[in-house]
Amino acid sequence: MSDLTLQPFFWRPTALFPEKRIVSRTADGVTDYTYGAVGIRVRSLVAALQDRGFGSGDRIGTFGWNHHRHLETYFAAPLSGAQLHTINVQLGDDDIVYIVEDAADDILFVDPGEPFETIERLWDDLPVDEVIVMSESIPETNVNAVAYEDLVDEYDPVAETDLPDLEEDDPAGMCYTSGTTGRPKGVEYSHKMIYAHAMMVMTPAGLDVSERDVVMPVVPMFHVNSWEFPYAATMAGTTQVYPGPAPSAADLLALIEEESVTMTAGVPTVWIDLLEHIDEHGGDLSSLERIIVGGSAAPEEMMRRYDDEFDVTVEHAWGMTETMSIGSVSRPKARMDEWDRSRKYEKRRKQGLLSPGLEMRVVDDAGDEIDWDGESAGELLVRGPSVVTEYYNRPEANEKDFDGDWLKTGDIATVDEDGYIEIVDRAKDIIKSGGEWISSIALENALMAHDAVVEAAVIGVPHEKWQERPFACVVTAEGTETNEDELLNFLDDELDQPDWWYPDEIREVQIIPKTATGKFDKKALRNQINRNPTNE
Ligand code: AMP
User: Is 322 a catalytic residue?
Assistant: First the structure.
């Protein structure tokens, strides 16, 4: 009897849908090929990994965007018995080095261009000794690098019958998520978890991904494995369209139009951008049926525009790295069919109904379950076959963030009488901007390291395009002088993070409101800033 592993995922599409297409935009141009060819190339890659001695207990790091070669490593790494570890290419240098060291990656598969330049710059600090550049050729470099296509050409595919035996509890995937304090935290996915999540995504009660769809996963493959679309879509035998490195709205629109994409997925910022692009240049979304939007709250105005102007349904989903992405989706129930549009939007704009297989509890500060009245709020706890029960190597976080096998999400939610969750706040002190995390505490500590700053509090303020942006308030010491530019330069020296990390505004204030226990009262501060956004 076979276990719930990625092996059947690999067999089904390559055996039953060998003619189905994968379309992939890369720096080398657009590649258009079939599942049949994917199957052969994946097995060549398994041979290359095995020849290097990789298998059970090893980690294969990837550092790249959404394209066919990355899809192939999604299968080759776990099918060789090793674990796929996807690393976010948008992180700052320190975090990248930390993550590669913490995960003890054995080899890195890296995109050409900027991602490779980053690895080249950090080469002496990284504990790996070989890089596979996911392209046809490699640039002149001191890094021990091999071109992906040379690797695939060099090795004969391992016969399907010779693929190593896998067990469902074997580790297959790994992702890091931002910690509120301290370093990013790793989570590991077993074969069984990926299997369970993909099955759920394929059901109508999940995301209803089917063979008839043409799916374009826009959420990056370094973000919770592109919400695991590459696995679910492959299992379903779906035509897949990969938009390549840092796709613009124009790139996405061109792919939707050319490939008749029916379903796509990503954070709200991407879809707001696409609307703006279409407003300016026009565009044809007639093939598109659904956009899955999550990662941050989907603005209702955006959902309505896609509905009204393009007949595209936006389905609002909630999830976390710790839940392998899709934890809930918002769709009206059948008995709501007769409701008018506005009433349906009351449900659709919420984060929705928990995904099949998961269970939830929403508890108040005393640990008691809240009433499902759409008003009472508490912390959302979830558990289920696709929810992790611990962080990798982080006992102190495990103590804090789990209650037995329940994951404490750090999201504050209400639940209405129909069971729809609405995320109304975040207990974790962290800001999410355009789908990427920014640690408010890291910014506060860095600001307070400045001689002139006595106190600093950083909050997320709403932003039309990025959903949230960091905003800092500082109290300065008497007799000192500083200004915003100086503090921003200081932050950059202290933290060395990408530009999007730094606050849009640093405001000097007389006092920062405090709670009864003397902590910064960020709720009060947020109210204060929202009332007075322009410093007048
Ligand atoms: P990540 O682990 O990076 O995927 O981030 C997960 C977190 O993003 C959740 O705990 C929420 O705080 C936030 N999040 C994800 N989806 C949504 C959504 N649809 N609405 C509001 N917040 C969301």
Answer: yes
Based on the residue annotation, tell me whether 437 is a catalytic residue of this protein: yes
Query: Would you say 107 and 134 are in contact if contact means Cβ atoms under 8 Å apart?
Result: no
Tell me how far apart the alpha carbons of residues 208 and 20 are, in angstroms, rounded to a whole number.
18
Ligand 1 probe mutation, 177, 226, 318, most atoms within 8 A of CB: 318
State whether the beta carbon of 433 lies less than 6 angstroms from ligand 1. no
Q: 227 CB under 6 A from ligand 1?
A: no
**pTM, two decimal places:** 0.92
Centre of ligand 1 from the C-alpha of residue 8, in Å = 30
1-190, CATH topology level: Rossmann fold (3.40.50)
Distance of CA 431 to the CA centre of its chain: 14
| 409 among known catalytic residues | no
Give me the residue spans of the domains in the chain.
Answer: 1-190, 429-531
* Ranges of the chain whose pLDDT falls below 70: 1, 179-181, 533-536
> How many C-beta atoms lie closer than 10 Å to residue 201's C-beta?
26
17-51 pLDDT, tens digit per residue, is 999 999 999 988 999 999 999 999 999 999 999 99
Q: What separation in Å is there between the alpha carbon of 121 and the centre of ligand 1? A: 32
pLDDT at 522: 85
Token code pair at residue 22: 């994968």
Residue 401 in tokens: 């963030």
**Among 175, 176, 64, which residue's Cα sits nearest to residue 114?**
64
The finding on whether 294 has its CB within 6 A of some atom of ligand 1 is: yes
What is the rounded radius of gyration, in angstroms, for the C-alpha atoms of the chain?
23
Q: How far is the CA of 72 from the centre of ligand 1 (A)?
A: 27
Q: How many residues belong to the chain?
A: 536
CATH code assigned to 429-531 = 3.30.300.30
The pLDDT of residue 139 is 93
Which of 292, 296, 300, 428 maximizes ligand 1 atoms within 8 Å of its Cβ, making it the mutation to test the pocket? 296
- Cα(34)–Cα(28) distance, integer angstroms: 18
Domains 1-190 and 429-531 share a fold: no
Cβ(423) – ligand 1 distance below 6 Å: yes
Whether 286 and 313 have beta carbons less than 8 Å apart is answered as no
Nearest to 200 by CA among 358, 83, 394: 358
